[in-house]
Amino acid sequence: LGALVIALGLLVDDAIIAVEMMVVKMEQGWDRFKAATFAYTSTAFPMLTGTLVTAAAFTPVGFSKSAASEYTFSIFAVVSIALGVSWLVAVVFTPYLGYKLLDPAKLVSLAQKHGEDIYNTPFYRRFRATVTGCLRHRWKVIIATVLLFVLSIVAFNKGVQKQFFPSSSRLELLVDLWLPQGASLVATEHEVKRVEQLLAKDANVSSFTCYIGNGTPRFFLSLDVKLFSDNFGQCVIMTRDFAAREDLKHRLEQIFTSATGGYSHLHPHVSRLENGPPVGYPVQFRVSGADVEQVRGIAEQVSALMRANPHLQDVSYDWNEKVKSVRVEVDQDKARALGTSSREVAQALQGWLNGIALTQYREGDQLIDIVFRGQK
Description:
- The protein is α+β, with helices and mostly antiparallel strands.
- 54% of the residues lie in helices and 12% in strands.
- It is built from twelve helices and six strands.
- A four-stranded antiparallel sheet has the order 2-3-1-4, with helices on one face. Strands 5-6 form a two-stranded antiparallel sheet.
- The chain is elongated.
């Protein structure tokens, strides 16, 4: 739909040019067939040139080697196809309709009111005088045009904010909470409830929904859906209006980054919904290498440099902390003496630490697992 809106001007302009050319020639006394033929021969190539130039203008965004081209290629394709069909209709079908619908007798009678020269009217005389004056002082006009062009470039760079995919104007805010790697769902639930208590007291919040262990289902096309993780929680906040959204975002960021806010052990991230491909963090650096410890050390140095920059905030990296693990070595002789095996020991530990589904409970058309898990 957006691509059609962009191409709307040329979509209707091609047919208007063809019809106007036929009307002018029929007012001059030409018959319908000759006027329709002239409309094709005189306007087909110029309109085709304009169509191709407009389609070519969208080529960079259509064929760029980036994730954005997945969204912008449709703009190039729709504009090119729509303008091509519009040109074909304007040079073939529109002259045919003009031949069938336009009445030469009425057009000739209208032409007789302003004489043989249909452009001999006050409007066209003023227009002709303006064009003649510009041609007479062509160097002044060229210099003025260049100066206006330079001024427009300066104004564009100074006063216009540039962002290829700006943030959405929707009123939702997303709050992502990352606990240290290895945190349990119980710990995540505790932190999410703290955020819920904070949001429940805020007058700018209309409603909110929080999720523990995963993110919200996709309710917005470009939403970055989070996969299941025990140490992750997410809140979707509906604010009252645009000003309330910006005010709440600013205050939440201050609370999360404050040393006295009680969230210093978390990695919170407050964001608006994004148009286009999800970006997450607008400034990102990737550190790669063969030595794991060296790569982690360099990543921490980059993170420290970014935190020291006063123009940056909410700095984090996606390589989480190391998690302690326990390697269980089963004494096979004692296990066989007790009538058990390594597999049964592994299943018992899995159930106690992470949980294991014993059976299912049916509620309506849904099956809910009943999970056995240790409390601590």
